[in-house]
Write a structure and sequence with these properties.
Length: 173
């Protein structure tokens, strides 16, 4: 049985190692992009939160905490810092007084746009050096990987067409 599994699992392991190596290199590029933006400097943990809140406008603090796999006080401190910078705002949840909804402010959108633009420039330079025929295969492979990752329950950030309140009701049921 292991002989039958081995030929298919080794290419998967090799691909996983390759992706891991790319992620590590991208982390370095992202750090460079973040450090090149005008102040304030945003640590990686805060930037990760900003990206999630930007993608999941109106996310509940509890859902963000669960998504990050972090302790509620730690996430609350991250949000406190981002709110002090004017990048994230808290607002009362209309259907539960005990919950808080999070949104990115216009200043937060601007800061993310600057960081993303620098990231895009760095990636564009790297991808432009890849031969054209390989860029097509790269795009197809990355698209497939992205779809597969987004189907994972742990990474499923949003259900199509559902509002944050809809997702909360579904998870509470």
């Amino acid at each position: 049985m292991t002989e039958r599994t081995r030929p298919t699992s080794e290419p998967v392991r090799a691909a996983a190692r390759q992706v891991q190596g790319i992620v590590e290199l991208l982390d370095i590029l992202w750090e460079q992009a973040r450090s090149q933006t005008p102040p304030p400097y945003i640590p990686a943990s805060q930037l990760r939160v900003m990206c999630i809140v930007d993608r999941e406008d109106g996310i509940r603090m509890r859902d963000l905490t669960q998504l990050l796999g972090a302790a509620p006080p730690s996430v609350s401190r991250l949000i406190d810092r981002l709110q002090a910078l004017g990048f994230v705002e808290r607002r009362a949840c209309p259907d539960s007084r005990r919950e808080v909804l999070l949104s990115i402010t216009p200043a937060g959108h601007n800061q993310l746009a600057r960081i993303r633009e620098l990231r895009d420039q760095l990636l564009h330079q790297a991808i432009a050096a890849v031969p054209s025929s390989q860029r097509t295969a790269l795009t197809d492979g990355l698209t497939s990987l992205q779809h597969t990752l987004l189907s994972q329950p742990a990474l499923h950030l949003a259900q199509e067409g559902a509002t944050p309140a809809d997702r909360h009701r579904e998870t509470a049921a």
